[in-house]
Amino acid sequence: MDSPFRVDILNGKVALLTGGGSGIGFEITTQFGKHGAAVAVMGRRRQVLDAAVSALQSQGIRAIGIEGDVRKREDAARAVETTVQHFGRLDILVNGAAGNFLASPEDLSPNGFRTVIDIDSVGTYTMCHEALKYLKKGGPGRDSSTGGLILNISATLHYTASWYQIHVSAAKAAVDSITRSLALEWGTDYDIRVNGIAPGPIEGTPGLRKLAPEEMKVKLREVIPLFKIGERWDIAMAALYLASDAGKYVNGTTMVVDGGLWLSQPRH
Ligand code: HXC
Q1: Distance 166 CA to ligand 1 centre (A)
Q2: What's the Enzyme Commission number for this chain (predicted)?
């Protein structure tokens, strides 16, 4: 589907996207690139990164891949430094890296719980912390009045409660809280906007493949108010809105893009 946005809305911007080589993250990377940004993609799997970067470059997008794990502070720091060395600055950090699997609390070990918190929550915080010096107003490559932007990919699982997702729900609740705290503190001190996006079920993603087998997808469609599962494109358009000047007064919010699913109730 064509983008409703002008193709130059991110011209001159540099974005670093964790988990940006596959799934929803890759669509955000692609749309950022198509709208003028240079993109650095961070991920754990070399093959996934290589494929992502060559697909991006074949569309004329300036792109690099950086192998690393957001759980390692030195990897986070290296990803930020490599991005700036290559493209000269950093304007947008997208925290998309996430871990997920279905497990009941009976079967989930404390280490399994911690692993997802480490990737989603601590990983998000670590990336923000390492990127601050380049995102703040007056930082290298930027003027004294304009800061950059952080976008945290979240979920809606924790708005209520979700079966077999105690670890991810806790992790994403922390991510939303990080979004609000940094929006307050870094918005005030450094002119950095910090927002999130909470996708609902999105077609063709590892999340949906793992969490909803085909037969559940049919049921899911029936309870989503718009009667359809979302597309990666829907999330990328929300990201473009938040990253562009259109979203310049939006700070500290997590935008739900789920067709209204989390509100869904049986009709009485
Ligand atoms: C129970 C599990 C498990 C499972 C791992 N563990 N998989 N427990 N059921 N299926 C436990 C292990 O037993 C271990 O605990 C601990 O977790 C660490 O496991 P490792 O395999 O050593 O971890 P690691 O290799 O670091 O892998 C982390 C991972 C990984 C999270 C398990 O597989 C991963 O990142 N995969 C998912 C990537 C992904 O799907 N991303 C998209 C996310 S979608 P013990 O106690 O045995 O040591 C998303 C959407 C959410 O986030 C919202 C949907 C609507």
Answers
A1: 12
A2: 1.3.1.34
